[in-house]
Structures are given as C-alpha cells and as structure tokens.
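Retro notes (design track)

What went well: tokenization of the new backbones is finally stable.
What didn't: we kept losing track of which sequence belonged to which structure.
Fix going forward: every design gets posted as structure first, then sequence, in one message. First example under the new rule, 203 residues:
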C-alpha cells in the first residue's frame, strides 16, 4: 500500500510539472541521467538446504546512468529498510521481528529496446555487493557482505528533462561458509521491484 501511494504521488507531481517541459524539450533519454528511487521492495526466498528464512524489506536508493548509442552503463547505490515480520526457519520461527537493514551497490549494463523515444523499455544485468547490517536479534553479530549478480528489465518514460522509471531485478547472492545462520550459508535468490524519478543531467 505504501509503495503504491508513493508511485501515485510521483505520477501526479510529474504530470503537473511536465507540461512546460514538453513544450520546450524533446522527450527522450539524455547522455547522463540520474534515477532517484524513493520506494520499492526486495524479497529473498527461503534457502533450500539450511532453510534460512524468507523475508522482505522496503527498498530505496539512486543510480547514475551514462547513455551511449545502443547501450548504457549504470552505477547504482541503494539500501533497504528492515520491516517487522515473522521469520520461519527450519525448526523455529521468530514473530514480529525486524529484519536487518541492507546496503547494496552494483555496476550494470543496460540495453534499450527502443531509443530516442519518450517510452524506452530495456533489459539489464550486472554485478555488485550486498551488505547486511548488524542485527543480533536474528543472529547477525556484525555486518556481512556478499557478492551479487542481477538480471532484469523495466521501462522508462520521459517528459522533457524529467521522467519515471519502473524496474524489476532477479537477484542472486553468492554463499560463503563463514556467513551467519540467518543469511548466506546457502546461495540466496531474491526479487526486487521499484519505481523511480529520472532527471536528465546532460541532454
């Protein structure tokens, strides 16, 4: 519900401000653009072997994109805020427990399926890292960092220098033996969706 309300507010604000911009500028991607991500969600499914708990967090962040003729390079930094939920492990559960906050960063290659248009669907993939911040309540005694990969796609809509963006990523997190019992002893897989605001910094 919160995510839907955020997206509705963003769409309404953009519609109000887009009229003058449309009259002055051609809609489409610029050479350099900034994406501000005020709202989204990330969900990690339960692991297969050790039955580490599934959980979801509120997602936010930002990305800087450099557009070339047929491809774009993007650097993204973000994070997620832990939410209170029931965590079901292999032989126990924790009720009304707030999940750890996370910090994420990745470098991505974006391939637009259309160019120089006000609506640009795209596919993307990249590598990066995920850090879970300390949360003793779930057995995470200190921050822990993992190698990640992502693939996905989305669509961008431009109105002058401004625009909106909707994005989906499938996430893969590489396991490591020294990880906590809460997360990372098995390879973990997740899903991330978000809505963002685009600002063309260099037309």
């Amino acid at each position: 519900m919160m995510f839907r309300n955020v997206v509705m507010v963003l769409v309404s604000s953009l519609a109000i401000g887009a009229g003058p911009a449309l009259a002055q500028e051609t809609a489409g991607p610029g050479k350099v653009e900034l994406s501000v991500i005020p709202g989204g969600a990330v969900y990690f499914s339960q692991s297969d072997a050790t039955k580490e708990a599934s959980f979801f967090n509120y997602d936010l962040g930002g990305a800087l994109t450099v557009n070339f003729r047929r491809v774009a390079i993007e650097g993204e930094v973000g994070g997620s805020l832990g939410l209170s939920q029931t965590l079901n492990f292999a032989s126990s559960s924790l009720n009304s427990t707030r999940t750890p906050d996370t910090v994420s960063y990745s470098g991505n290659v974006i391939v637009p399926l259309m160019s120089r248009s006000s609506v640009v669907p795209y596919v993307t993939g990249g590598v990066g890292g995920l850090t879970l911040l300390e949360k003793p309540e779930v057995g995470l005694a200190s921050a822990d960092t993992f190698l990640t990969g992502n693939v996905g796609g989305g669509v961008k809509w431009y109105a002058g220098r401004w625009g909106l963006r909707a994005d989906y990523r499938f996430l893969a997190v590489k396991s490591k033996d020294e990880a906590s019992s809460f997360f990372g002893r098995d390879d973990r897989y997740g899903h991330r969706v978000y809505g963002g605001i685009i600002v063309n910094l260099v037309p």
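Added context from the reviewer: Confidence is low (pLDDT under 50) at residues 2-24.
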